[in-house]
Amino acid sequence: MKRALQQPSYPDDKELRAVLAQLSRLPPLVSSWEVESLKSQLAEAVRGGRFLLQGGDCSETFEDCEPTQIAAKLKILLQMSLVLVHGSRQRVIRVGRFAGQYAKPRSSETEMRDGISLPVYRGDLVNRPGFSKAERIPDPALLLRGYERSALTINFIRALIDGGFADLHHPEYWNMQFVHNSPLAGEYTHMVDSIRESLQFMETVTGTSLTDMNRVDFFTSHEGLLLHYEQAQTRQVPRRVGWYDLCAHFPWIGNRTRALNGAHVEFFRGIQNPVALKIGAPITPDEVVSLCQILNPHNEPGKLTLVHRFGADEIEATFPPIIKAVQEAGQSVLWCCDPMHKNTEITASGVKTRRFEKILAELEKAFLILRDHNAHLGGVHFELTGENVTECIGGASGVTEADLGRDYRTPVDPRLNGEQALEMAFLLARLMARNRNKENTITNCSGQKEKLASR
Ligand code: PEP
Ligand code: CO
Q: Is 0.90 topped by the overall pTM?
């Protein structure tokens, strides 16, 4: 039997089994048809024809499962994707870190406060954040509550999209109040106007209505951490071969649970979904190659996305040998940069934060390093929210360290707020365009242009 890291220990095994039995009878949250469609879109991204935009909360909470927050999250991802499509002339695959991102890996089993030790909070799917024994004991009923919240979230997202929320004839619907006050308001409004004019022009010329423009695809993802939960939703479907994990389109393996001989890799190698693997220190090029061979044995393009998270200061030393090893092994992967997780710092007053310029710097370096290796960056993975929180420092709207106390809400990792996320999309679109034109400079952390050392 393979070892499963980061699993809660439930006090009552019978209760857990009963919940899992219920979960495995309930309808799936996504369909195998959607999963296959995403896989073929990811295969196009491997060939350079699409770009993956993945984003959302570090950790969703049951409390936040309400319409304003869900709509705001959907809006910011739609706005970012519009900016990327417009700026880079590339089709975008939109994937939310939502409708199931409820379980978190933690660095210790217990938390100590005032001499009292309790199980650590592992996300709403497992236990509660409050510091009491009753709240911290893992409760299997929360698996059902999480499944239901995921279903409510995905149902609302599907209804919004079907109802025309993403209609390109009316991108002004996607506007959020705070964007009007942002330094980017002008640039965004200008882009929206130009899209509307282009649509009107096409419709006038062709004499038809471009009705497809009212629909976009939207996919869900979360860290497939709790193997009991994932397994209970893993099914065979009529007329298809193999097993589908139907609680999300695109589950990922976290950096802490990617052990070669561990239970997570064993579970993920058995599913038909496209899967993402987070890779970060400490990892060797050989380990990455072995993981690719296990998770994508038929070397199917689109099946495996490597989400690299090395940090702006480490990426130049750590990433190239990994790219070379994967290329030498002939493995097909989509490279996707998570510029969040290794650019985390603690301020002098003890607040966990991330700096906008470090996040951007890692992205810039990822583009250039991959290009130097005749490969390409095919996607990005952000922690963000549509709300106007103050969790990350920097960006044009000028969130400073002193602002962090004003509206810091995340229970785990700091997220880009709506303005920072939109600005990041504008800068990313510029990077994509510049990358196509093969320019060779990056902006360093002090905002100066610097030539990237050739490798
Ligand atoms: C995360 O994505 O929130 C996370 C825990 O990331 P990683 O596995 O890369 O540390
Ligand atoms: Co996180």
A: yes
